[in-house]
């Protein structure tokens, strides 16, 4: 059976980065869809002699169960033991499996496995003068209430970074997976703000080194209230640019949320632009087009394009995007516009961080080597 698989890559001497977005392409039994998606991914990796650096799987609980089994069967002995981030969402147009997104690399050496408490949780990739580290599904389910889990989650990620002589000042991008987001997003922001302030990422006299970020209402599959992924740049040091106000939006910290609108980081094969989760929000931080899904979709797309334009990039530079839709009706409206937004992407049904927000986009773009 067919899949909707899009692949983008960029290459420099010594390293290639490959981005894969894949989703079921036609109605079929769930197990058949899962097998087809991961068979296509395995083939794409093998044909490029590439290895996974970071991986996310979006779907319903039923879809994630099928995906885990299909993934295990497809990867076989090539699996290095690092789990994908399995993220529970609502059922959308693609069915129980919304899609899989992978950032892979090819070079002289394969990524090394990063461990915490003896368990694989990420990878580190070295290519000449560039070193990149990723962590996936970092959580602390036993820490207690959601805010305590959030604090422990960030402390756990920090402790892993310290094993490699790094800290959160090396992190250009985070993803925060927040179950039941609407009930505690403000509390989460207070925890994150305090953590970043204590680490010198924000506050008077700092560089305001907040990572670009997505905070979205997806349930970590391990049952924790929250989990996080991140990308860190270990070499070259102090090379990341953090853009608090860019495009048509002002600094998110002004309304209490500690993330940059975008960041620009040196990655193994180029310069990567990480565009944070972006929605229909104006320069003052207010939601626009309330109750109007089509208006929010168009405004969000324009906001993403404005960020890219400020960073001398465009649609053609996007290598991966995730489209977050509050309902299947919002997804249907977006898919009707898909031909005008030719980005490699998957669409996911979930809550956005505000009750009046219906739609959000995150994007990754790469500046090609010159």
Structure notes:
By secondary structure, this protein is of the alpha+beta class. The chain has one domain (3-367): 2-Layer Sandwich (60s Ribosomal Protein L30, Chain: A), CATH 3.30.1330.40. The chain is 24% helix and 35% strand. The strands form three sheets. Strands 1-2-5-3-4-11 form a six-stranded mixed beta sheet, with helices on one face. A six-stranded mixed beta sheet has the order 6-7-8-12-9-10, with helices on one face. Helix 1 packs across helix 2 and helix 3 packs parallel to helix 4 (185-198). The radius of gyration is 19 Å and the shape is globular. The N and C termini lie far apart (39 Å). The model has no long low-confidence stretch (mean pLDDT 95).
Helix/strand-derived category reads: alpha+beta
The CATH class name reads Alpha Beta
What level of helicity do the residues show?
Answer: 10-25%
The overall number of domains is 1
State Rg: 19 Å
CATH superfamily caption: RutC-like
The shape is globular
CATH structural fold name: 60s Ribosomal Protein L30, Chain: A
Give the CA-CA distance, first to last residue.
Answer: 39 Å
Work out the helix count: 6
The tally of beta strands, per DSSP, is 18
The helix/strand order is EEHEHEEEEEHEHEEEEEEHEHEE
Mean pLDDT figure: 95
CATH architecture: 2-Layer Sandwich
The order of strands across the largest sheet is: 1-2-5-3-4-11
Q: Could you name the ranges where pLDDT drops below 50 across 5 or more consecutive residues? A: none
Largest sheet: 6 strands, mixed
Beta-strand portion reads: 35-45%
């Amino acid at each position: 059976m067919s899949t909707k698989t899009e692949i983008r890559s960029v290459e420099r001497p010594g390293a290639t980065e490959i981005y894969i977005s894949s989703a079921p392409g036609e109605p079929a039994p769930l197990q058949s869809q899962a097998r087809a998606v991961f068979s296509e991914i395995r083939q794409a990796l093998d044909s490029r002699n590439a290895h996974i650096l970071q991986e996310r799987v979006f779907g319903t609980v039923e879809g994630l169960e099928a995906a885990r089994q299909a993934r295990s069967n497809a990867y076989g002995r090539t699996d290095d033991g690092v789990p994908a981030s399995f993220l529970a969402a609502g059922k959308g147009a693609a069915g129980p499996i919304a899609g899989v997104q992978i950032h892979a690399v090819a070079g002289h050496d394969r990524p090394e496995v990063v461990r915490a408490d003896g368990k694989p949780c990420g990878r580190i990739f070295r290519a000449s003068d560039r070193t990149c580290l990723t962590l996936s599904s970092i959580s602390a389910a036993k820490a207690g209430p959601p805010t305590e889990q959030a604090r422990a989650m960030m402390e756990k990620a920090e402790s892993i970074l310290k094993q490699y002589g790094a800290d959160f000042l090396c992190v250009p991008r985070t993803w925060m997976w927040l179950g039941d987001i609407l009930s505690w997003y403000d509390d989460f922001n207070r925890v994150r703000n305090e953590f970043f302030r204590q680490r010198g990422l924000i506050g008077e006299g700092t560089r305001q080194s907040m990572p670009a970020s997505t905070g979205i209402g997806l349930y970590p599959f391990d049952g924790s209230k929250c989990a996080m992924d991140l990308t860190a740049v270990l070499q070259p040091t102090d090379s990341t640019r953090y853009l608090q106000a860019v495009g048509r939006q002002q600094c998110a910290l002004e309304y209490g949320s500690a993330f940059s609108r975008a960041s620009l980081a040196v990655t193994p094969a180029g310069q990567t632009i990480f565009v944070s989760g972006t929605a229909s929000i104006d320069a003052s931080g207010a939601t626009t087009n309330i109750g109007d899904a089509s208006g929010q979709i168009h405004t969000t797309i324009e906001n993403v394009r404005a960020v890219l334009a400020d960073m001398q990039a465009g649609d053609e530079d996007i290598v991966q995007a995730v489209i977050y839709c509050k309902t299947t009706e919002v997804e249907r409206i977006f898919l009707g516009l898909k031909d005008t937004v030719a980005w490699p992407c998957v669409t996911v049904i979930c809550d956005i961080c505000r009750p009046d927000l219906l739609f959000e986009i995150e994007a990754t773009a790469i500046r090609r080597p010159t």
